[in-house]
Amino acid sequence: TPFKISRRVSHEERNKMNIHSIDLHRGQETVNEYYAVSPIDVEEEVIVSVGLQEVTSVLEEEEKTIIMHVGYGFTEQEIAVKLEMKKSTV
Question: Residue 66: which residues within 8 A CB-CB, separation 6 or more?
């Protein structure tokens, strides 16, 4: 499917764009008329996500929660307060 992109968009910006086809499911019908333009490489995100799920599948739920909070940038102190545990436990 051809896409028109403004001439004001630089060559470098065009190369960073990822165009994704989105399938909309309505009951038994699938509509393939939607597209999203994003700087996110969906394929890479999926690979990373699956890898993270494989690694964390052996952890307890509390351990997974701590890792997710660290990933979101929370400090050990903030995580300890939120999960009602000692900082040394985190």
Answer: 79, 83, 90
Could you read off the pLDDT of 30-66 as tens digits, one per residue? 776 666 666 677 778 888 888 888 988 999 999 999 9
Kindly give, in sequence order, each residue whose CB lies less than 8 Å from that of residue 77, ignoring residues fewer than 6 positions away: 87
Boundaries of domain holding 67: 40-89
pTM: 0.47
The answer to whether position 54 is within a domain reads yes
Q: Does some domain include residue 13?
A: no
- What are phi and psi for residue 49, nearest 5 degrees? -60, -45
In a domain, 5, yes or no: no
